[in-house]
């Protein structure tokens, strides 16, 4: 199903237009996910700082 939708879009828009639309979007999503992961890694040490020492 998805393959047919992609093929239809490529035929309608053309391969260059299709790639120019989705490749940058994929790169932006990837960068956002990496930034969230980095932010979560930076917050982890701060969360454990509030715990009492055992």
Walkthrough of the structure:
By secondary structure, the chain is an all-alpha fold. 87% of the residues lie in helices and 0% in strands. It has helices at 2-13, 15-49. α1 packs across α2. The radius of gyration is 20 Å and the shape is elongated.
Give a brief outline of the structure.
The chain is mainly α and 54 residues long.
SSE topology:
Blueprint: H1 2-13, H2 15-49
Helix pairs in contact: 1-2
How many helical elements? 2
Order of helices and strands: HH
Rg, please?
20 Å
Overall structural class, as computed from helix and strand content, comes to mainly alpha
Q: Give start-end ranges of low-pLDDT stretches.
A: none
Largest beta-sheet details: none
N/C terminus separation: 56 Å
| Averaged pLDDT | 76
Strand segment tally:
0
Residues in helix, %: over 70%
β-strand amount: under 5%
Please give a handful of descriptors for the protein shown.
2 helices, mainly alpha, 54 residues
